[in-house]
Each structure stands twice: as C-alpha cells, then as structure tokens.
TrEMBL record:
Residues 24-96 form the Mycothiol-dependent maleylpyruvate isomerase metal-binding domain. InterPro entries: DinB/YfiT-like, Maleyloyr_isom, MDMPI_metal-binding. GO terms for molecular function: metal ion binding. It comes from the Bacteria. This is TIGR03083 family protein. Coiled coil: none annotated. SUPFAM superfamilies: DinB/YfiT-like putative metalloenzymes. The lineage of its organism: Bacteria, Bacillati, Actinomycetota, Actinomycetes, Geodermatophilales. It comes from Geodermatophilus nigrescens.
C-alpha cells in the first residue's frame, strides 16, 4: 500500500496501530479514559477503528442497513456495543494485518493513514502521551489535510498560520496557531484539545 509521494504508508499504519496497542496493553486503566472524540472512552474508539478487522463485508453491510445508510449511526452503535468486548480481543484486532492493510472506500492509502493517525492522536493527545504514529506519518497527514484546506473535517483555515513546535513544519498565513505536530493534526481533524483550543468550523 503506497501513496503520499510513493512512501510505504502500510508500514506507517501498522506501526501506528501497533504503538497504540502497546500503550493500552501496558496501561490497562487507560481503556476507560476519555478521548478527543466527544462521548467516547478509549475502548469505544478502539472498537470503532478495529471494525475492518472484526466485521466481514457481509456483517458490515448488515450494520449499514440497520443504520439506514448513516455511517455516523453505524459507528456509534458499533462503538457502544463492541466497547464491551474483552481487551485482549480489541488488542488483537489493533494488531491484525487485516486492519493494517485496510483502506476506506474511496479514501485509498492516504485515507487509511489519516484514519489511523487521527484516531491514535484522539487517544494519545487526550492522555498527554507522545504520538505513537511515526513522525513522518504525522507530517504526511498535516500536508494532506492542509492541501485540502481543511475541507476533509470542515475546519476553516482562512487567516490561520499553523506552526509545529516540535518539527518546524508550518503552513498558511495569518494568526499563528502553534502546537506540537500531533496536536495540530487533532485540531485539523476538528477536535478540541485538552486545553480548550479548537479551530473554527466552516
């Protein structure tokens, strides 16, 4: 799986999910901690991201039909239900090669990388931990989301300059928003940081 200037995105995705599994395996108490996804604890988020490794295409189709085609409803339903699965099962799914090779429909390798990086940061930023995603993967997602000028997640980047405090990465012009690269990705994904910072919505 290559994209993002021909680089090995699959390796980045795999390392991101493996890193997240390592954090949760080492710190069991974090399963009940809140994430940057409003209303979701870590266990809900992991249940969400591991759907491709746990649900067959037929099962996913049945879930989508039950949700009347609304992916947001499907996500909330599956997250609420499958958050109760044993931690060992969810960790196994995070480490699954099936998940590491999965690409969202229409999203390709870049979409798979963004999904992995953003959701891993939903956990690590909320917990105050360093990113588990490789630094190059975080930078690639920053480049991809800003190239789309925030349209992926509905944030308004007009008059905003983003500056990474840990890598020197920067984009845009206007009022400076300075944070570490992982926190910038979370802001670009429409999240509110633990300190209350958020980017305006369109």
């Amino acid at each position: 799986m290559t994209d993002v200037d021909g680089r090995d995105v699959a390796a980045w995705v795999g390392r991101t999910y493996e890193g997240l599994a390592g954090v949760l395996d080492a710190e069991p108490a974090t399963w009940d901690a809140p994430t940057l996804c409003a209303g979701w604890q870590v266990r809900h988020l992991v249940a969400h991201v591991t759907m491709p490794a746990r649900l067959s295409p037929e099962q996913f189709g049945a879930e989508m039909a039950a949700a009347r085609g609304d992916f947001g409803v499907l996500s909330d339903t599956v997250a609420a239900r499958d958050a109760a699965l044993p931690a060992a099962d969810l960790l196994g799914a995070l480490r699954s090669p099936v998940l590491h090779a999965w690409q969202p429909p229409g999203g390709g390798a870049t979409g798979a990388l963004s999904h992995a990086v953003v959701h891993s940061l939903d956990v690590t930023v909320a917990l105050g931990r360093p990113p588990v995603a490789p630094a190059d993967a975080v930078a690639a997602v920053l480049d991809a989301v800003t190239a789309a000028e925030g349209a992926w997640f509905g944030v308004d980047l007009a008059g905003v300059r983003l500056e990474s405090s840990d890598t020197g990465w920067a984009w845009g012009s206007g009022d400076a928003v300075r944070a570490d690269g992982g926190s910038l990705v979370a802001l670009l994904a429409g999240r509110t940081l633990p300190d209350g910072r958020a980017l305006p919505r369109r």
